[in-house]
Amino acid sequence: MATVELTKENFDRTVSDNPFVLIDFWAGWCRPCLQFAPVYEKAAEDNPDLVFGKVDTEAQQELAAAFGITSIPTLMIVRDQVAVFAQPGALPEAALTDLITQARALDMDEVRAKIAAAGEERG
């Protein structure tokens, strides 16, 4: 299997040990989640250098709550321990591929600088 089941026990370690993690928040009763699953699995197979995690929001309610997940499926991308994308909705294959390409192209130094600047404006 190309995806990793994420739980509150392994989530932090998975995100801190890997520079690029995609996370699918889903539930077994959610029809759009089940329709998105094969698209997500194929992307995982097509991108073996990335970590594709799945969080079952029914089994991992604390984890879903910690990220404010109110709609599923929700896809999150974490690069270098920074959430660079989070959006609910099942993506078609082409959109997911494009999103992965865009996330790969991000300059993480620039992303961190923007986050720091936004924090200073609020501060």
UniProtKB/TrEMBL annotation:
Position of the signal peptide: none
Keyword Ribosomal protein recorded: no
Keyword Transport carried by entry: yes
Domain of life: Bacteria
Location of the Thioredoxin domain: 1-105
Pfam families xrefs: Thioredoxin
Gene3D superfamilies: Glutaredoxin
Keywords annotated in UniProt: Disulfide bond, Electron transport, Redox-active center, Transport
SUPFAM superfamilies linked: Thioredoxin-like
InterPro entries noted in UniProt: Thioredoxin, Thioredoxin-like_sf, Thioredoxin_domain
Family per similarity comment: Belongs to the thioredoxin family.
Protein name (Swiss-Prot/TrEMBL): Thioredoxin
Source organism: Streptomyces toxytricini
